[in-house]
Amino acid sequence: MPAVAxxxxxxxxxxxxxxxKNNIKYNNHETIVHVGTNLCNELRNNILPxxxxxxxxxxxxYSQQQTxxxxxxxxxxxxxxxxxxxxxxxxx
Length: 92
What we know:
This protein has about 90 residues and is mainly alpha-helical. It has one domain. The chain has five helices and no strands. The protein has helices spanning about 10-20, 30-45, 50-60, 65-80, 85. The chain is globular, with a radius of gyration of 13 Å. About 20% of the residues are buried. Residues about 1-5 have low confidence and may be disordered.
């Protein structure tokens, strides 16, 4: 796997802390951060529909509930602009 050119995103400590508080197990920070940033990239660029992006995380061995926790943490930390609930606010 090639080295990542940039450092961890700014909100990585918040993301890791949220996962730890919710007992989400992961092999190492780099991998789980990549899962979160990759999810944001997929959502932001319409690479995968949200359900397929979540399924990809589940296919890594996480339960549906764990996947929701990971996705929530990732969106809050790395791509709050992709928060579906926030987008449902009435448009003027």
